[in-house]
Amino acid sequence: MSGADGLFERVPFTDEIAVLRDLYPRSVWPGHKNLGQTAKFWLQRHDMFRELGEMMTTGAGAFLENQDDPRAFMGWLAPRLNLFLRELHSHHHVEDVHYFPIFRAADERLGRGFDILDADHHTIDALIHDIAGTAMTLQTAIQTRGEVRRAADAFAQQLGHTTTGLIRHLDDEEDIVVPLILDRTEVKLGV
């Protein structure tokens, strides 16, 4: 994979990769007659990941500023982080096993895009493990009254890094998948 394809180095997909985007720009998605229930649900999941990522990033930043009650922060963070990581892993698994093969077969011009998105999933999977590791280090530091500030800073940096890459991935994925669904319909694609 070239450096331009890497999750943290690339800019939004070009028209050569997102081949149907010009026909179906984001502005037409919400009211388009072919935006079915599966696509709406899928977009809602993407929005959930964006919202949870931003919420946790903001919360981690506020904790770093105040550090008022580390145990309360961890009590607030843990369920949100667990939901985020679990659902993200599950979401990508369903895409890899079910949706991406269908979409790839529907239009061979999208092959390079799906190759990149698949590589993103591997990168994001590693980042999920990294976030979990830094969260565990933070939890241990809080429980043992260790170096909480250092652990919280490492967690916040890892979360921010991951969220940045995830948002790039979600945007690119939507630029390929939603126009395909609008062009072909969910029924014809079999989703």
Please describe the structure with a list of short key phrases separated by commas or semicolons.
mainly alpha; Four Helix Bundle (Hemerythrin (Met), subunit A)
Percentage of residues assigned to helices: over 70%
Based on DSSP secondary structure assignment, what is the total number of beta strands? 0
CATH superfamily, by name, is: nmb1532 protein domain like
What is the overall number of helices? Answer: 5
Number of domains: 1
Q: What is the molecular shape?
A: elongated
Distance between the first and last residues' Cα: 29 Å
Q: Which structural class do you get from the secondary structure elements?
A: mainly alpha
**Strand and helix order:** HHHHH
What is the CA-based Rg, rounded?
Answer: 19 Å
The major sheet is characterized as: none
**Percent strand:** under 5%
Would you tell me which CATH topology applies?
Answer: Four Helix Bundle (Hemerythrin (Met), subunit A)
The assigned CATH architecture is Up-down Bundle
Q: What is the averaged pLDDT score?
A: 94
